[in-house]
Amino acid sequence: MAFDLLLRGGRVIDPAAGLDAKRDVAFSDGRIAAVEADIPTENAKHVVDAEGCLVTPGLIDLHTHVYWGGTPLGIDADRLAARSGTTTFIDAGSAGAGNFLGFRRHVMERSRARILAYVNISFAGIFGFSGRIMVGECGDLRLCDPREAVAAIREHEDVVVGVKVRSGRVAGGSSGIAPVEMGLEAADKAQLPLMAHIDEPPPGRLEVLDRLRAGDVLTHCYRPFPNAAIDGAGRIRADMIAARERGIVFDIGHGMGSFDFSVARAMIAEGFMPDVISSDLHLFCVDGPAFDLLVCMSKLLVLGMPLIEVIRAATQRPADVIGRAELGTLAVGSPGDAAVLKLRPGQYPYKDVDGETVIGAERLVSEGIVTGGHWWANDGADAVPSIESIALHTNEMHADTVARHFGHACGCGHR
HSE-up of 266 (CA within 13 Å, CB side)? Predict the structure, then answer.
């Protein structure tokens, strides 16, 4: 049989299939065609040498913001995909019912990487987010209409995976728990999961957890005080344990303010590992402290989370959460997505959102990805981006932040 592409000689880790062994992976017609111990190279049109690499299902980043140009925090998924090993980006509520069509037409349908999305319960999506301006989209409840959200979900059901709500003093002002309740109304009607963001109270973490259903996602589960998952003595709060027993999904959602090493360390020490590792990548954390999904995964490795569980948390688990299990495996017949990674030794200064630095002896990096059966090399694989410094955006003009990531729109490079 002639294959379109062959990844040869890598260590294949596919947690969904219970596989961790040296294997070749072949692709035909945009799908996984074979996973075998020795596939002759002459049977493939294109061969990628994966010797010394980890070959995994394409990574799925459950929490990103990739509506670039249409929202102030969006980044370009295609610029990050090969570098981060990510073949599927789940946008976590950048767009609401009022602007979802623009997101779909101008970004999702033009992207080489797969983009799926949660619809924001706020009609306007995330609109006031920058270094100088922070206006939460749930601060005015007139913007939160479950009927509008459900109508948008039904119109775009092929690319929508759930409802997103951002509650808290920053995202919701004094609206308290009301946005969460509206989000749950919409999610229940659409029969989809809710992803709930928490920042500083109100509402408190317990108010949110008590309302979530099995399969719903609490993102920012390792966020710092206040609303942290551990108490002042460093013990996991009982409500977190009870929520996990009820089937609530716990997601990292690193971002610029939601990953605290002290919280993560305490919870992992008690066996409370995250269900999902995601980056919450956006314009204000892509230059640190999140950087990309592989850096976030590497931070969990340095805290002692086993490699296979780290990979599971970025493949099988997010695929299950969004109801698309076929995206989280290398099983024959599955969509032809894969990541080719390396564990690179060195001394890496991993930073959390409060400035704590933990030195790690290894870092996950990407050699490239496969999307739809086509090889997409990481052209910067030999020069891994530094994670030593973090760009600060406080009081920076938004045009300058955008230009640093995308370049100047006029192309002249002026300031």
Answer: 18
Amino acid 143 reads L
Tell me which residue of 192, 16, 184 sits closest to 116, measured CA to CA.
Answer: 192
In angstroms, what CA-CA distances link 290 with 58, 293, 296, 381?
19, 8, 6, 19
CA distances from 141 to 56, 138, 171, 289, 370 (A): 43, 6, 12, 32, 43
Amino acid in position 96: G
**Which tens digit of pLDDT belongs to each residue from 62-90?**
999 999 999 999 999 999 999 999 999 99
- Sign of the alpha-carbon torsion through 299, 300, 302, 307: negative
d(CA 324, CA 24) in angstroms, rounded, equals 24
pTM of model > 0.85: yes
Residue 170 structure tokens? 């920053």
- Determine the Cα–Cα distance for residues 285 and 64; give it in Å rounded to an integer: 11
pLDDT tens for each residue of 184-238: 999 999 999 999 999 999 999 999 999 999 999 999 999 999 999 999 999 999 9
Residue 56, token pair as written in the block: 């995994």
Task: Name the token pair of 84.
Answer: 């981060």
What number of other Cβ atoms are within 10 A of residue 251's Cβ?
A: 28
Please state whether beta strands 31-36 and 357-371 pair in parallel, antiparallel, or not at all (unpaired).
unpaired
User: Which run of H or E residues covers position 393?
Assistant: none
The angle subtended at Cα 172 by Cα 264 and Cα 67, nearest 5°, is 75
Q: CA 144 to CA 120: how far, in whole Å?
A: 9
> 369-397 b/e with 16+ CB inside 10 Å = b?
bbbbbebbebeebeebeebeebeebeeee
Distances (CA, A) of 187 to 21, 112, 119, 376: 40, 29, 10, 35
Q: Which residues lie closer than 8 Å to 165 by C-beta, 6 or more apart?
A: 93, 120, 121, 138, 179, 180, 182, 183, 194, 195, 196, 197
* CB contact set of 268 (below 8 Å; sequence gap of 6+): 300, 303, 304, 305
Extended strands (E) in 97-244: 114-120, 128-129, 134-135, 160-167, 194-198, 217-218
Beta bridge partners of 117: 91, 160
> What is the C-alpha to C-alpha distance for residues 248 and 362, in angstroms, rounded to an integer?
31
Q: How many residues does this entry show for the chain?
A: 415
